[in-house]
Design brief:
Blueprint (H helix, E strand, L loop, with lengths): L2 H11 L4 H17 L5 H16 L3 H11 L7 H8 L3 H10 L5 H10 L2 H8 L6 H10 L2 H8 L8 H13 L4 H6 L5 H6 L6 H13 L2 H12 L13 H13 L5 H9 L3 H12 L3 H9 L3 H10 L4 H12 L5 H14 L2 H11 L1 H10 L1
Helix pairs in contact: 1-3, 2-3, 3-5, 4-6, 6-8, 7-9, 8-10, 9-11, 14-23, 16-18, 17-18, 17-21, 18-19, 20-21, 20-22, 20-23, 21-22
Length: 363
């Protein structure tokens, strides 16, 4: 940079008129983009002058400067950091677009600024894992939704688990969680019992598409996650389990016996036998029955290779005296018929993790 330009910059920084200083800020910025400084000392001088001038300007002027610096390959560092910590109107352009912001810069903003700043960071073309973790920790559910919908945001396993835990309690997050491509498959399947039918279909589609190696990796990761506490066992559980085990020893427990248990109101025996024959855990079976999750029951029956007619019998008995029971049973019967057995079996493998974790804990 010529000696005259350095002198001009020093004079500009001492200019007392606020109106003139706005003009000077634009002139210095133009000078920066027209002839980017090549040496460290020149960049430091530009940084000092621009930072000083911008700090004394109104928000609209600083926002204009942020728009210009957001796409600069090598913007002045101190100025960029100041803009990122400024009001949202000023900070948003650099937070969403500037590639010159470092991970430390982003973490400083994520740990100290408000939700608007967190959402701006969440829309970046690249969000480092550590930054995403900070956003999940401090962000509200609206912010979390923005982050989850950005496939260029890297989330740790712990952050994905936290997102799923929050989504279980907030239906507004269901779509963002289920649609996220990088969500671990075991966590995706935890969402099955809380999302609506349309999203359940998406989960089944993803299960059908996963290759065996990825499935095993997902199952291995899922076994490390602490199983949810599903509530105490019913008072007659031990008795029902012993009777079902005895009947099994005598070869007397089969799919048709399940219908008999259900028809006779022997609910715990039905659940114990269903869990045994379908190789799922008792709590998952109980959740299906208590919530009348007939689409989930269809998955269980298809994976266990029960006849469609037996599933329809279960459906009618589960619905009981509910109006339109037969019509609804036929509707779910169609779901049973359309469900690929391979997809059902893969889904059951995720649900089976509850049982495996319980067995390890009891050992």
């Amino acid at each position: 940079m010529a000696e005259s330009k350095i002198n001009d910059l020093m004079k500009l920084a001492r200019e007392p008129s606020s109106e003139r200083r706005r003009e000077l800020l634009r002139e210095v910025t133009d000078m920066f983009f027209a002839a980017p400084p090549q040496r460290t000392g020149e960049m430091a001088l530009f940084d000092d002058v621009l930072s000083q001038l911008s700090g004394e300007m109104e928000e609209a002027v600083r926002a204009e400067l942020s728009q210009r610096m957001a796409d600069a390959a090598q913007p002045p560092r101190r100025l960029l950091a100041d803009l990122a910590l400024d009001s949202l109107a000023v900070a948003e352009p650099v937070l969403t677009r500037s590639r010159a912001l470092t991970e430390d810069d982003l973490l400083r903003v994520a740990r100290t600024r408000d939700q608007g700043h967190l959402r701006a960071i969440s829309r970046r073309a690249n969000v480092p894992e550590a930054v995403s973790d900070a956003i999940v920790e401090r962000g509200d559910d609206d912010t979390l939704s923005v982050l989850l919908r950005n496939e260029h945001a890297s989330l740790s396993r712990a952050a994905h688990e936290a997102a799923v835990d929050r989504a279980v309690a907030n239906p507004a997050l269901h779509q963002a969680v289920v649609d996220r491509q990088s969500l671990p498959m075991d966590l995706l399947n935890e969402m099955y019992f809380v999302v609506e039918a349309r999203l359940r279909d998406r989960i089944l589609e993803k299960n059908a598409a996963v290759d065996p190696a990825a499935l095993e990796a997902a199952l291995a990761a899922g076994r490390k996650r602490v199983a949810a506490r599903d509530g105490a066992l019913p008072a007659d559980y031990a008795e029902a389990e012993a009777e079902v085990r005895e009947m099994k020893t005598r070869g007397g427990v089969g799919p048709t016996m399940l219908a008999s248990f259900l028809r006779n109101g022997e609910t715990t025996k039905f659940l114990v036998a269903l869990a045994e024959l379908a190789d799922i855990d008792f709590h998952t079976a109980r959740r299906i029955l208590e919530r009348r999750e007939l689409d989930a029951l269809a998955i269980v029956c298809k994976a266990a290779d029960f006849d469609r007619s037996l599933f329809l019998t279960f459906a009618v008995l589960v619905l009981g005296r509910e109006a339109e029971a037969m019509g609804r049973a036929r509707e779910y019967g169609q779901i049973y018929s359309d469900l690929p057995r391979d997809a059902a079996c893969r889904t059951i493998r995720f649900w089976r993790m509850r049982r495996q974790i319980g067995d390890v804990a009891a050992a």
